[in-house]
Amino acid sequence: MPTKSIREMSKFELMHYSLRARTFHAILVLSLVLCSFALGFGIFFYVRDAVTQVEHSVSSLSEMCADVIDGDQLRSYRDRVFADDETVLEDTGYRTLSSVLASVAQHNDLSSIFIGMPTPDALQFRFILNPDESNSTQKAGVTIDMDEGRTRTYQGIGDINNAIVLKLTDGTYACSAGAPVFASDGTIAGYVVCNVALTHIVEMSRTFVWQFVVVLAIITFIVAFFVTWHIKRTVAAPINRLATAAAQYVQDKREGKDTTDHFASLNIKTGDEIENLSLIMSDMEQDLSEYEKNLTATTAEKERIGAELDIASQIQEGMLPNIFPPFPDRHEFDIYATMHPAKEVGGDFYDFFLIDDDHLALVIADVSGKGVPAAMFMMASKILIYNYAVIDGTSPARILEKVNHTICLNNKADMFVTVWLGILELSTGRLRAANAGHEFPVVERVGAGYELLRDKHGVVIGAMDGVRYCDYDVELSAGDSIFVYTDGVPEATDRDNSQYGVERMLAALNRVKGAECRTILEAVKGDIDAFVGEAPQFDDVTMLGVRYNGAGMARKTLLARPEALPEVLAFVDAALEAAECAPKAQMQIDVAVEELFVNIASYAYGAERGTAVVGVGIDLPTRMATITFADSGTPYDPFAKADPDITLSAEERSVGGLGVFMVKKTMDEVAYEYKNGQNVTTIRKKI
Amino acid sequence: MTINQSLNGTELTIALAGRLDTTTSPELETALRTSLEGVTSLIFDMKELEYISSAGLRVLLSAQKTMNRQGKMKVVNVCELVNEVFEITGFTDILTIE
Prior knowledge:
- The complex is a heterodimer.
- Helix content of chain A is 44%, strand content 22%.
- In chain A, α12 runs antiparallel to α13 and α13 (583-604) packs antiparallel against α14.
- Chain A is built from 14 helices and 22 strands.
- In chain A, the strands form 4 sheets. A 6-stranded antiparallel β-sheet of chain A has the order 3-2-1-6-5-4, with helices on both faces. In chain A, strands 8, 9, 10, 11, 14 and 15 form a 6-stranded mixed β-sheet that branches. In chain A, strands 7-17-16-12-13 form a 5-stranded antiparallel β-sheet.
- Chain A has 4 domains: 34-203, PAS domain (Beta-Lactamase); 258-319, no CATH class; 329-548, Phosphatase 2c, domain 1 (4-Layer Sandwich), CATH 3.60.40.10; 553-686, Heat Shock Protein 90 (2-Layer Sandwich).
- Chain B has a single domain (2-94), classed as STAS domain (Transcription Regulator spoIIAA, 2-Layer Sandwich).
- In chain B, α1 (25-35) links the parallel β2 (11-20) and β3 (41-52).
- In chain B, α1 runs parallel beside α2.
């Protein structure tokens, strides 16, 4: 596998992957191996046959010579030579024999021919006649040691005619054969020995090798070229065309050209696997083109659905009241609600609306499932609850029963919704509620903090027709609040899959108790987010908070410090002026408000910061203004202190207690109570 | 609140207008601390003072005590609403109101 892309390779590197080069190399290597074997065997057989032939002819020659030589005469020559009679060398017969043998040697390409006799133990050989007189080591009368091969030959007389190959002292090879010359009495007069040098055989095989190699090399190159050319024509060229077409295909796709015949137009007709490959590639191109078209269509469809989901999400968001404060002229309650959907469109919803001047409906619900089906079901549920509540908003249980019945008439998808529905009577603070399988609401009592209200649950809406729900009442005092939520809050999970839980939610609520509803909801959401961290949000997180301010009483929460006084007075004066309060009464009330608020601001929390809640209510029929101050500082009854003695002279007087004294004097009623951890001071004055 | 001071020899007239309450009375207190030296007669003109709370009373009481040592003080042109505060708190007996 190349580690680089083929695009990054140089020409030389591409050679490595060329079929032609590989084939060429393979043929060369194969030829080399085959030729080596052929040459080896050829030389072996050639040499063996040549040597056999030489052996045969040398044997024949020595026997022929032995036959024609007169044995008796040879014996006399032998005896004279062995007796060191040098006159024999000049004997005419001896000389004639010598020249005949020399002639035989010359005509038969013998390297040497001589007559001699081995010693009886066959270890030595003594020359009788040697035509080559220049060779003094082998001349007549000389005795030489014989090599082992020759000795064995003479010891086994029957094999005497067999020629043998000898390695000579000069390193060359020779073929030697000897034949006995018999005297008339049958004894051996001597041996004729013929030697042929094998040099010419070596020469010939050398020539043979040289010629063989040249011819084979030429043939190998021709074959290699031909095969390579053939492979190029039938394999490499079509493959290269396919590769070029593939590269062109990729480039055209990048440039956005819409041609679909890159492979079909190649028209490769090799009739083998390559043609097959080109056909498959052509089909593949067509299929890819089809697939691409489908994909484009599908993507467009998905985008359209995405856009529609966005719109659906916006419609759903628009269905939920999300302008706060929703009823700026109503001071009896403070309300805030949020929904954070997990998917584009969620199944959770909240709702609140005034059924009439005195009844505020509060709804929180969670539809089974998620996404578009849940959202559609949610829409239907929300509208039904609203409609039935507006028609007859006295009993949440009856409303839920009617909603359940209507939904059950046509609930083919078997969906259901959990609903908590409460109706708050603003003039009394009575909250009447019913719960259709929804999470427990949380109630905050002034000073006591938030607690889970384990109310009676009915069956979820949509489960079965004819279900009965029951109402329950919660009496809310001024300053109490109620917090409802969907299961997305307690079931929010962090990365370790542990759940946020109701306990954490209550703790988060209690950290901000008494605060405005918006602050409370934001604090809970912030706490959930901190808990969940990077983990994905699985469920919608929806919350609704309502604080009851008391009947017709406007409330304002401020930091308890003297700088807030103008704000307090503006808040009180606005209410008084709206009721057309007499200037004298208004000034007295202002003085009283100032004295009481400055007291709280200066002393209630010591050096700490704290808040005070100022409430103003005017009962128009009796023209009685009620103003309350609540703080959670040190318990202190401002009215318990004895009145200052106002008859003292200026020097004896201090101003302590004078403010509260004025309050007592000018107001119609003053009251103090410490309840639920709060100082609550109330003043009343007829306006 | 506005404070208008006019010094005529050793007679200082301070005309108060607006509201004399917790927020504004420190202003008057500061003004008095610097102005009262050598004054033998202090006159508060309350013609345009609409409102007074105990914080304002405290400043008036303190001024009265100072003037008891170095001269005299009187309050003039008190409107009905402010006068009522003086009456309730017994300040009518302490201050010289004309």
